[in-house]
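thread: overnight batch results

M.L. [08:02]
morning all. the overnight job finished for the chain we discussed friday. pasting input first so we're all looking at the same thing
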Amino acid sequence: MTSPYVNSTIEKGIATIAFFHPAHNSLPGDLLAKLVEAINEAGSNDKVKVVILKSGGERTFCAGASFKELMSIDRAETGRIFFSGFANVINAMRKCPKFIIGRIQGKTVGGGVGLAAATDYCMASKFASIKLSELNVGIGPFVVGPAVERKIGLTGMSQIAIDANSFYDAEWARQKGLYAQVYDSTQALDEAVQVFAENLCNYNPEAMAEMKKVMWTGTENWDTLLAERAIISGRLVLSDFTKETLKKHK
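M.L. [08:03]
and the structure it wrote out:
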């Protein structure tokens, strides 16, 4: 399949939310909105006990923001709305009363790192290196930064945010706490994710919901915080530096 999509399936208490875009699973605004909708629906469905978040294809989990859409932004308000898309997905994941398992099969960049960090338990293949590339194009990981910092700490987040040209391998991400487990192949990853999700379905849903509230304590201000961060990114994407840098990616 080559057309972008977000789809959701439910089987034996497990909701699997999958997204895809032919441009390395980058996320334009419409896909971000559909992700929010899918996460909210899974969270409110009594038949769902656990959620798996994954992307289509074999190589890249998520390339982050859509460069095509970034290049089309011509007003600060348009930029704010676009970056709010990532903020809305992270907040939907934060508020979802079900545990969200991340299945990261390949490289993930920028906003994709934020999605991985916003899952409750993240499992990856050895090919799932990460990069926060935003500073390299003149913006900065402002919206996803709180989620990434929550998982790997301020030191780890600062390292990959400043070193915006470098990929950090999956083992580094595991040692820092982003990934709980790293597997040698996508097949092994998928098998482990399925077994783990099925095991969670045996737990008390009420206990898991209460546990999730506890784990996300201290993030109650994120609706406001991430909205403020989206304004910063929306302003910076209009800078001459960023506009010239984005032209090189055409």
